[in-house]
């Protein structure tokens, strides 16, 4: 192999510039054999003669009198090489184990070492990303990259996630950062990226970083690069197997649960008062206790029979049944294999991954397969191209047996003493009707109408199937060494098909057939399965032409310039769905011809129309055209200036041609003081002071500058008519975010300690805000124009240190972020009643997301909450509500953390290493839930505070929880209590995010001898627990709306490379 | 050499590619939205009957003393509706939106957008007709707004009394201050005269689009409000002479039918309906016994307009919408009544009686028993009485009361029974004029009405 390389090298040397004394070669690592990019070749007087390219090759003309050169690269030991009699120089550098690895920043347009850029970046390399096990890639960033806040507070389901980079940059538009995958903006689903394929991730934080990507980068950019094969690399195979075990959700966490021993007396007391209706024609669900109370009242059962039943129920807890029958320990299995091989001309990488996740809820399962094929081919010294084919296919099954499916019609929770299994058989619970009614259905000629959850296992699963592919190709042309022209193209396409098959024996189908059974006994629906289907598809094209020029002039000046243009088109189609009744699985036939407009009489009462299939068709087509330029100039390796300019244009509808685009720009500078002659301290290797300022943008496609109209068809005249969708808005502008970033990078003791301190200020201008309009103008819809302003400022610190570096080593990383935002311009004043819900409306001079509350006056001597109207304290809730002003609200603080970060410590001894990651969030508030009597009486949703409520006069001194109201009461009594200030708690908490343990065979005594090459086994545990939190209400402040805590899980894996 | 050829090729490609970019950016991001690119688009906006034809104001009708809402049901009304019914001073108490204002200014906005965009298109019959229709709708909205939110028109004081903010631009931020009542009425008349001027009879007409009769009819109604009886009569007679509409003979209709009058029937000149509010549903807004008793037994309207409910209360069923929605468009019957009234007022009593009798023949079983006095005031009162009986729940009653109140001979207080007590509203009370919505006053500083 080596001889081929040598002879090829000679041949190349002859072809190109044989006349001059040109020296060429390749720089490689001694152990890994992989090429080293950006290695510096210095002459004896410190002149830079050349820098190796991304393929490790370099070339320079030997100056007169220079016989040797010093070749160095951060992370490797620098070495002198003799060049007196050679034409080629193939160099191997050995790794410098003392040093932390060099960090390369990838922006998606170019790659640059961190010490040659002025912008603000965070990065995570392969090693760090591999210290976690997960199906998706973004969750591996948590705790590994600073400044990213993972916000899971949205809707109580721990699987929904919002990423915030340096706070917020917009008020009403999309808040998510832009994701770049292998140099192209990524529009697919995030689950299609297999983390095992990822080489590194760079997060671009400031304007210098984001103005590169333009109008969609206002919220920050996350650049993901997948692994590629490098030229002249021996064939390597990597295999990775891991299993992740997830504990069953802890149902005891649910704060809304009331014990049966409290719930039943509550029902009995309501029954005394005549709260429950006896003969409801709609047969609305009732609890067994209430049913038996009616039986008792009508003398259908005796008192002792009631007592027996009651005692049994008091001891029941449906959580036990759910835990036993509907939950399981979740198991995720991940298998991955990849092969890379790099020849001189052709390098190839193939990878294949398969994931199978069994969720902790039964009947929920996820499978994913990814396939990736990457080739790069070097035609000659001028042209090389690469192709990239990725295919992803996923299937997600979702059963109909999650705890929410057990909640009866019209209620918010199931009564606590429900049981799912009786004497070894699935038991019935009320779903849409009273138990007795459902039980007797068969006696009146209907199908069995009982709902037995455990008999529904395996039925009615929804399958969401998503095939997706990404194909790209790039062509690099290098007519002269300093100049590269790149043409690249990518096509992404994907489809999503959602299908549910309702089994003919399932409750759903029996219910539909029964419901529509007519008085004469005839059925509207045939008996058989029901099939529901919906498809959407999307595809996008991206094309870029890029020219870059890099030159070293007189060795003191390094210039790099980049310019280009991009076209991007994204298209999404939603196709009308189908519903097939009487579906026959074997033959695949079904019926759809029903009268969807007719109102049929239904059982037990009322009328209804048959649900028609979703008939919405629409197509969305987003197009962008951009021009950009980046320039950087480095003088004597000390002084650095960078600039970038970009113009983005889009098919923003209804906008004049010249308004369709927005120019964005940034400038930056950096100065490495430590390289100055006057700098005294030698142990400090580098002190870079840097500053950037620039403008990024944000996009809101729902607003237009010209009048737009929307067509519909009239049922009165059969003509088409139109409505005005958006009024003329001639001053429409794109949202802008201007960011100023000041930072310092310190490198001490030969890279043992690296500290970065940054301060930034973001000014979001021309943000879309809701503006209150005078209706006399005639436009009555919500109106958005550019006028709102949001200011964000903060600081980030990141510290990496190798504290101990012997056989035992200890590495520590600390990320700390402060961030505060304030709305500086917004005119709409919301009603105060809307500020005490889950998400607050924007209010000027306050953070975008904040927590407000009503003042609390305590309870009166009957346990009723008191309110203050004017100077009087009373229980007049109506007057309080109608008199309420914004100034009456108490403002507590931000709802999003203002100070957060991670502390990661990694200890290694020989082959073993252990990492512990702590995460903290502080400086924010949340609203703790409590008992709502309206919800309890009408919908069975309670709260554990119920047990500590006021029960007798005098209790108002010890408790703030109101009494159970007597008689009818206003919903405002609940609101005044739930929105009160003493439910607002500080969310500060510190937790152990995860722990990682690894045994690496290659680092031990057996290194070098092992045929297995580099093999490691690892154990990873996440959500280990909260060490400390500011409040004691038993909730996790990071997910205050959730019914279950973050599930603990532990993974085991094996990875081998050979 | 090779390298330079490659470079050249690349430059050429860039050049070609960048020139196609402008059309490429013209694709619509969402298929269902459109820009205004043709006259059809403008006509489609005016054909939006949900915006343009429906939602004429209801607050005036709700204030009329002919109807009753049960005490217990008042709680279920919104604050403005309840206060309107109860003739309170502070109608809104901060409530928003006040739809009678908002939704009628929306009609003006649509009309202004159409008028503004029309300038882009060449002038032909279709564009003229569209312009005519837009002007009509603008006048139609202003006509309703001025009756509700301004005082009655008195020629001697109209120049010094407040009218409406006159909106003639499509700019939603341009909110003019209130003009004088005279200017407002003049603006409505100007719009209608221009509308008539541009109007062309073309194919594809239906009753939600204004035809020449509709434009003349509105002119006639406006002149009536202004006390310009000559001009009002001139228009009314022109309609009666030329229209394709014909008076429905009530003798031919079925009194047992749920809705005796069919939608778009022959008598309709222009179709419109009143804003449906839960305060005024047919089952809630009960007809007073006294009002019902004012109908003669031979009056066919007694049985065709009203029905008795099981509990003895009276409900309305005579809408020309053929449903529980109230018709507020223009019928030939109304034009006949205007012709009668105007003739009487200008001293041509005989002509007036002629029109009146032609009309009543279609409303009574027999007209021979009707005795009409000959003196002007008595005749006028008779016509007015017929107006009141004909135009039930048509959105016209309140405007009529306001204009009668400006005449000594006709001005009268009205009474309503509330919680067992009788409340009275004197003629020309400030409460005949509704307040401007508080949000409008706050945002644009418009002068508020005195209550």
From TrEMBL, chain A:
GO (cellular component) term, any one: cell outer membrane
Chief localization: membrane
UniProt topology in membrane: Multi-pass membrane protein
Domain TonB-dependent receptor plug: 117-221
InterPro entries: Beta-barrel_TonB, Beta-barrel_TonB_sf, CarboxyPept-like_regulatory, Plug_dom, Plug_dom_sf, TonB-dep_OMP_SusC/RagA, TonB-dep_OMP_SusC/RagA_CS, TonB-dep_rcpt-like
Location of the protein in the cell: Cell outer membrane
Ranges where the TonB-dependent receptor-like beta-barrel domain occurs: 508-865
Family matches, as Pfam families: Plug (PF07715), TonB_dep_Rec_b-barrel (PF00593)
Keyword terms, alphabetized: Cell outer membrane, Membrane, Signal, TonB box, Transmembrane, Transmembrane beta strand, Transport
Signal sequence interval, chain numbering: 1-21
Family note: Belongs to the TonB-dependent receptor family.
Record protein name field: TonB-linked outer membrane protein, SusC/RagA family
Protein species of origin: Sphingobacterium wenxiniae
UniProtKB/TrEMBL annotation, chain B:
Membrane-spanning intervals of the chain: none
Keyword Signal among record annotations: yes
Gene3D superfamilies: 1.25.40.390, 1.25.40.900, 2.20.20.130
Domain SusD-like N-terminal: 23-224
Keyword line: Cell outer membrane, Membrane, Signal
Localization in the cell: Cell outer membrane
Residue intervals of the RagB/SusD domain: 332-449
Main location: membrane
Pfam families the record matches: SusD-like_3, SusD_RagB
Keyword flag Signal: yes
GO CC terms, sorted: cell outer membrane
Family: Belongs to the SusD family.
Protein name: SusD family protein
């Amino acid at each position: 192999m080596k001889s081929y390389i040598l002879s090829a090298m000679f041949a190349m040397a002859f072809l190109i510039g044989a006349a001059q004394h040109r020296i060429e070669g390749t720089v490689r690592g001694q152990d890994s054999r992989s090429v080293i990019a950006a290695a510096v070749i210095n002459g004896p007087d410190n002149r830079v003669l050349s820098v190796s390219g991304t393929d490790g090759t370099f070339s320079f003309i030997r100056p007169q009198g220079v016989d040797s050169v010093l070749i160095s690269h951060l992370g490797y030991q620098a070495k002198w090489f003799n060049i007196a009699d050679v034409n080629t120089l193939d160099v191997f550098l050995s790794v410098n184990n003392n040093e932390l690895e060099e960090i390369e920043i990838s922006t998606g347009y170019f790659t640059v070492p961190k010490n040659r850029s002025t912008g603000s970046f965070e990065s995570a390399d392969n090693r760090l990303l591999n210290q976690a096990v997960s199906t998706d890639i973004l969750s591996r960033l948590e705790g590994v990259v600073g400044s990213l806040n993972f916000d899971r507070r949205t809707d109580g389901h721990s699987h929904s996630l919002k990423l915030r980079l340096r706070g917020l940059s917009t008020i009403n538009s999309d808040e998510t950062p832009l994701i770049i995958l292998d140099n192209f903006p990524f529009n697919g689903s995030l689950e299609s990226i297999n983390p095992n394929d990822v080489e590194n991730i760079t997060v671009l934080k400031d304007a210098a970083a984001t103005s590169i990507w333009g109008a969609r980068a206002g919220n920050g950019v996350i650049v993901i690069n997948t692994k590629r094969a490098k030229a002249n690399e021996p064939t390597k195979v990597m295999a990775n197997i891991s299993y992740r075990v997830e504990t069953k959700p802890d149902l005891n966490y649910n704060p809304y649960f009331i014990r049966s021993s409290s719930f039943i007396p509550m029902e009995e007391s309501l029954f005394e008062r005549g709260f429950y209706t006896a003969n409801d024609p709609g047969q609305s669900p009732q609890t067994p206790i209430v049913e038996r109370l009616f039986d008792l009242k009508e003398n259908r059962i005796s008192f002792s029979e009631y007592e027996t039943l009651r005692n049994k129920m008091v001891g029941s807890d449906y959580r036990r049944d759910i835990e036993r029958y509907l939950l399981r320990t979740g198991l995720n299995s991940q298998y991955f294999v990849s092969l890379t091989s790099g020849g001189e001309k052709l390098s190839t990488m193939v990878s294949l991954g398969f994931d199978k996740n069994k969720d902790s809820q039964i009947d929920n399962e996820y499978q994913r397969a990814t396939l990736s094929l990457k080739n790069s081919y070097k035609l000659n010294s001028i042209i090389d191209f690469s192709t990239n084919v990725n295919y992803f296919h996923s299937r997600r099954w979702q059963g109909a047996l999650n705890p929410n499916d057990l909640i009866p019609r019209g209620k918010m929770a199931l009564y606590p003493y429900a049981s799912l299994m009786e004497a070894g058989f699935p038991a019935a619970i009320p779903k849409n009707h009273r138990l007795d009614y459902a039980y007797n259905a068969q006696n009146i000629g209907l199908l069995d109408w009982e709902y037995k959850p455990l008999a529904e296992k395996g039925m009615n699963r929804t399958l969401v199937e998503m095939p997706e592919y990404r194909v790209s190709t790039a062509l690099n042309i290098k007519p002269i060494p300093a100049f590269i022209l790149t043409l690249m193209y990518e096509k992404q396409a994907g489809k999503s098909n959602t299908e549910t098959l309702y089994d003919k024996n399932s409750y759903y189908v029996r219910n539909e057939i029964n419901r529509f059974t007519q008085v004469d006994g005839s059925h509207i629906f045939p008996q058989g399965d029901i099939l529901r289907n919906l498809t959407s598809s999307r595809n996008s094209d991206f094309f870029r032409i890029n020219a870059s020029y890099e030159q070293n002039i007189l060795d003191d000046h390094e210039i790099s310039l980049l310019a280009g243009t991009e076209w991007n088109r994204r298209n999404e189609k939603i196709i009308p769905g189908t519903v097939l009744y009487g579906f026959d699985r074997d033959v695949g036939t079904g019926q759809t011809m029903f009268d969807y407009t007719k109102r049929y009489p239904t059982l037990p009462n009322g009328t209804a129309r048959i649900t028609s299939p979703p008939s919405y068709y629409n197509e969305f087509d987003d197009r962008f055209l951009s021009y950009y330029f980046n320039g950087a100039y480095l003088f004597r390796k000390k002084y650095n200036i960078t600039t970038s300019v970009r113009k983005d244009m889009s098919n923003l509808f209804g906008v004049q041609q010249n308004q369709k685009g927005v120019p964005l720009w940034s400038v930056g500078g950096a100065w490495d003081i430590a390289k100055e002659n006057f700098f005294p301290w030698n142990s400090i290797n580098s002190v870079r002071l840097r500053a950037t300022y620039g403008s990024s943008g944000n996009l809101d496609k729902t607003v237009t500058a010209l009048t737009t109209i929307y067509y519909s068809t009239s049922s009165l005249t059969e003509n088409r008519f139109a409505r005005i969708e958006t009024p003329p808005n001639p001053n429409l502008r794109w949202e802008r975010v201007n960011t100023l970033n000041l930072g310092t990078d310190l490198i001490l003791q030969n890279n043992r300690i690296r500290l970065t301190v940054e301060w930034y200020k973001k000014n979001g201008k021309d943000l879309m805000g809701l503006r209150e309009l005078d209706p006399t103008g005639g436009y009555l819809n919500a109106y958005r124009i550019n006028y709102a302003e949001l200011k964000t400022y903060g600081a980030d610190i990141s510290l990496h240190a190798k504290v101990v570096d012997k056989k035992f080593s200890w590495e520590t990383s600390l990320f700390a972020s402060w961030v505060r935002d304030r709305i500086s311009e917004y005119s709409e004043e919301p009603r105060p009643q809307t500020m005490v819900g889950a998400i607050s409306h924007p209010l000027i001079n306050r953070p975008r997301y904040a927590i407000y509350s009503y003042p609390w006056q305590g309870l009166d001597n009957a346990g009723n909450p008191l309110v203050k109207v004017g100077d009087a304290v009373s229980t007049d809730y109506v007057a309080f509500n109608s008199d309420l002003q914004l100034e009456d609200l108490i403002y507590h603080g931000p709802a999003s953390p203002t100070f957060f970060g991670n502390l990661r410590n990694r200890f290694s001894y020989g082959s073993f290493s252990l990492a512990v990651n702590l995460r903290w969030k502080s400086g924010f508030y949340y609203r703790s839930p409590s008992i709502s009597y309206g919800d309890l009486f009408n919908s069975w949703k309670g709260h554990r505070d119920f047990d500590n409520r006021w029960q007798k006069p005098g209790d108002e001194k010890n408790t703030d929880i109101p009494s159970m109201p007597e008689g009818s009461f206003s919903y405002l009594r609940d609101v005044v209590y739930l929105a009160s200030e003493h439910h607002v708690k500080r969310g500060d908490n510190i937790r152990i995010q995860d722990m990682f343990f690894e045994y690496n065979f290659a680092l031990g005594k057996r290194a070098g001898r092992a045929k297995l090459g580099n093999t490691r086994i690892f154990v990873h545990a996440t959500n280990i627990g909260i060490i400390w939190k500011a409040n004691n209400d038993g909730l996790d402040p990071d997910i205050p709306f959730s019914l279950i805590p973050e599930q603990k899980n532990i993974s085991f894996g094996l990875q081998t490379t050979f | 050499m090779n390298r330079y050829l490659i470079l050249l090729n690349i430059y050429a490609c860039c050049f070609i590619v960048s020139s196609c970019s402008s059309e490429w950016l013209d694709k619509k991001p969402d298929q269902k939205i459109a820009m205004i690119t043709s006259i059809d688009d403008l006509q489609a906006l005016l054909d939006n009957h949900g915006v343009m034809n429906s939602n004429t104001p209801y607050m005036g009708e709700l204030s009329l003393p002919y109807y009753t809402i049960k005490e217990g049901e008042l709680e279920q009304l919104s604050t403005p509706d309840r206060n309107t019914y109860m003739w309170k001073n502070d109608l809104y108490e901060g409530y928003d939106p006040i739809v009678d204002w908002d939704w009628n200014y929306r009609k003006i906005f649509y009309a202004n957008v159409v008028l503004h965009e029309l300038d882009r298109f060449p002038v032909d019959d279709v564009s003229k007709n569209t312009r005519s229709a837009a002007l009509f709708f603008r006048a139609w909205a202003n006509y309703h707004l001025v009756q509700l939110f301004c005082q009655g028109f008195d020629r001697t004081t109209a120049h010094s009394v407040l009218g409406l903010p006159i909106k003639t631009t499509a700019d939603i931020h341009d909110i003019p201050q209130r003009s004088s009542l005279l200017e407002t009425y003049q603006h409505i008349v100007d719009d209608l005269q221009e509308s008539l001027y541009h109007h062309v009879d073309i194919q594809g007409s239906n009753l939600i689009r204004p035809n020449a009769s509709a434009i003349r009819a509105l002119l006639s109604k406006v002149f009536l409000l202004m006390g310009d009886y000559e001009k009002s009569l001139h228009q009314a007679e022109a309609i009666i002479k030329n229209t394709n509409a014909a008076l429905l003979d009530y003798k031919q209709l079925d009194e047992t039918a749920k809705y005796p009058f069919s939608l778009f029937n022959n008598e309709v000149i222009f179709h419109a309906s009143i804003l449906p509010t839960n305060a005024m549903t047919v089952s809630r807004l009960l007809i007073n016994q006294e009002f019902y008793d004012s109908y003669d037994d031979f009056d066919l309207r007694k049985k065709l307009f009203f029905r008795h409910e099981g509990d003895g209360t009276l409900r309305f069923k005579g809408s020309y919408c053929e449903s529980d929605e109230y018709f507020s468009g223009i019928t030939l019957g109304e034009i006949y009544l205007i012709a009668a009234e105007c003739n009487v007022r200008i001293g041509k009593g005989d002509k007036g009686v002629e029109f009146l009798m032609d009309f009543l023949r279609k409303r009574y079983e027999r007209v021979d028993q009707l005795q009409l006095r000959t003196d002007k005031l008595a005749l006028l009162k008779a016509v007015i009485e017929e107006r009141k009986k004909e135009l039930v729940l048509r959105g016209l009653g309140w405007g009529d009361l306001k204009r009668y109140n400006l005449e000594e001979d006709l001005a009268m207080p009205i009474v309503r029974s509330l919680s067992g007590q009788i409340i009275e509203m004197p003629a020309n009370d400030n409460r005949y004029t509704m307040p401007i919505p508080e949000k409008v006053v706050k945002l644009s500083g418009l002068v508020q009405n005195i209550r």
